[in-house]
Specification:
110 residues; alpha+beta; 34% helix
């Protein structure tokens, strides 16, 4: 997995979307990140965590290549705007649901 800066993550994510446009999929995960690289022990002292240090970990994968980035609290608004614009531009290949009329459903149940 490659840890990238925020701007380079967005450009690589754009490349992943373009690569998987015709076939394939991109999986994106988002979770809270406290900076730990190793799991915390169950028993023992808990380290104090300052809520001002909240971070988000974003990961994206197309099955072959994995990229990730950590977004700090100060950069969240800027990153969110750029990320939402990128998603709006590239999420157009979703399949639409078949809408069946209510009359067909009611006739089928009777």
């Amino acid at each position: 997995m490659v840890l990238l800066e925020n701007d380079s993550f967005l450009t690589e994510l754009t490349r992943l979307f373009q690569k998987c446009r015709t076939s394939g999929s991109v999986v994106i995960t988002l979770k809270k990140y406290d900076g730990r690289t190793k799991p915390a022990p169950r028993k023992g002292h808990l380290e104090t965590f300052d809520p001002a240090d909240n971070k988000c970990l974003l990961r994206a994968s197309d099955g072959k290549r994995k990229i990730s980035t950590v977004v700090n609290t100060k950069e969240v608004i800027k990153f969110q705007m750029a990320y939402s614009n990128l998603l709006r531009a590239h999420i157009d290949g979703l399949k639409k649901k078949d809408k069946k009329s209510k009359s067909k459903k009611t006739k089928a149940t009777q």
